[in-house]
Amino acid sequence: MYDESNDVRGARMAIRGMLLGGAVLAAFPALAAPLDPVAPQLTGTKEAPATPSVVGYPAIGNGEGTVQGKYNVSRWAEDWRTMRDPAKRDDPLDRLKYLPLTQDGEVYLTLSGEFRYRVQATTNPDLRDREAQRQERYRIFAGADLHLGEHVRFYGELAKARLDGVNLGTPGANLRNALTLQQGFGEVKGRIGDAEVGVRGGRQEFSDGPNLLMAVRDDPTLHFVLDGVRGYARGKRLRADVFDLRFVNYGREGMSDDRTDGSRRFSGVTFGYAVPNDFLGTSKLFFDPFVWRLRNRNAAWGGQTAREERMFYGLHLYGDVDRTTVDWTVNYQDGEFNDRDISAWQVFLAQTWRVAKDASAPRVGVHVDYASGGGGASGTGTLRTPSGLYGNNIYYSYQLFLTPTNLLAISPNITVQPVKNLRVTGEFTMAWRPNEDEAVYRASGAAFANTQNVAGKHIANLIRAQAVWALTPRVSLTGRYEHMMVKDALSNAGYKNSDFLAAWASFRF
């Protein structure tokens, strides 16, 4: 008798072999050459999450943080040793970036902070015919980075989140929180041969992967953080990061009610290879194969809640080729959910092209994103719905109505800089579901009710526009508008169009 399961297992083994083989091929050239000392840490690996299109280049592909102007979203990823020289300081606040505690200056403290005020309005919240929602969000972050010489550091960050407005429902603890220890970790680092190695343990932000799979989620007032350990080794062209982390459940009161979530454990390894600059003419590219595992005792699909163990096998290529910026990911997921097999795919292809050599020239681009679907809403058969982990869903919509599960999205975009320090981006997204028998999913990972029971593949069209004005290196203003036009896959289930309008001001030091 024909046993289909043997073919499925064989296909999975072949897929694993291809992806892991890619990792070996990427690592081999670097392993063949001696590792050189790395430069001091630079900020940035990914675009600012408020930007709809890929507009920036990761200064160094070390998987630590996201650049916003001269600052990093993950503040511990900044290196302020240049402030040791008084001539480098522009104002009194620069003095806070380097406070020597010993005469030789090897022990020093860096202080950082952020205040953000944001107001936003959403019509037809949850895409239902309801009263509009208005939110006023306040963020206060305060961080301290203590360096005990070259090899030891401790970082702590307190945060407060306040939320006011109309028609708020039940706000999450990442929007309303009296006080939390958002980050608190220690790090030990040094050199083995020509490689920099280190271990970081405690509560920390972790975003060493594609933006649509992991991000600090700068949209909510509090960032997404995890508890655990991260270790790394970095040479001239090759790096490896290993980690074992658990999710964190925020409480709404003081620091005592924020708990490690013992039911969700995330571990794995991300490799990195800095492609030689003469590859494809003139290029600055990074190639990051990864193998991750997510274990969730309370995963929910199709009305079922059960244990899930999910593996991620992926390849991530990003950076610049002449005037073109690319960010490409291929990711296969397998494992088991409630004794059912998992077999799911995600492909993210984003690229922009600068129309002239000048850095402020307009950029045109498109990102195409595919995520398989099947078995999630039905509760039977192989589960072909991929997980979006804790990725950056505002990439699709600040209304959080789309996520890379059972999704095909095509988004042409353009970014212009009409005057100095003002960047304006416009984008048009067309979204479909590849599997008409599977539900449409929102950013939380939950299905839109009844969408698996209606006809239609076209989910929605979305118009988006955003302007970011950097008044000073510390102060920025952002305005954003979105109009979501639901199509058959949503309208046939009773969902309505929605508008989103927001403005916010950020101050950082």
For this entry, give a set of tags.
509 residues, mainly beta, 18-stranded antiparallel beta barrel, two-stranded antiparallel sheet, 2 helices, 6% helix, globular, disordered N terminus
Describe the structure.
The structure is a single chain. With 509 residues, the protein is mainly β. Helices cover 6% and strands 49% of the residues. The protein has an 18-stranded antiparallel beta barrel. The chain has a two-stranded antiparallel ribbon with strand order 1-2. Strand 19 and strand 20 (475-486) form a beta hairpin. Residues 1-59 have low confidence and may be disordered.
**Terminus-to-terminus distance:** 69 Å
What is the subunit organization of this protein?
single chain
**SSE arrangement, N to C:** HEEEEEEEEEEEEEEEEEEEEHE
What does the overall shape look like? globular
Helix content: under 10%
Rg for CA atoms:
23 Å
Number of helices: 2
Low-confidence stretches: 1-59
Beta-strand content estimate:
over 45%
Largest sheet: 18 strands, antiparallel, barrel
User: For the residues shown, what is the average pLDDT?
Assistant: 88
Secondary structure: number of strands = 21
- Give me the secondary-structure category: mainly beta
Task: Give a short summary of the structure.
By secondary structure, the chain is mainly beta. The chain has two helices and 21 strands. Helix content is 6%, strand content 49%.
Give the helix/strand layout.
Layout: H1 4-31, E1 67-68, E2 71-72, E3 99-100, E4 107-122, E5 133-148, E6 152-166, E7 177-192, E8 195-204, E9 226-234, E10 238-249, E11 259-274, E12 283-301, E13 304-321, E14 324-337, E15 340-354, E16 363-371, E17 407-416, E18 422-432, E19 458-470, E20 475-486, H2 488-491, E21 498-508
Antiparallel strand pairs: 1-2, 3-4, 4-5, 4-21, 5-6, 6-7, 7-8, 8-9, 9-10, 10-11, 11-12, 12-13, 13-14, 14-15, 15-16, 16-17, 17-18, 18-19, 19-20, 20-21
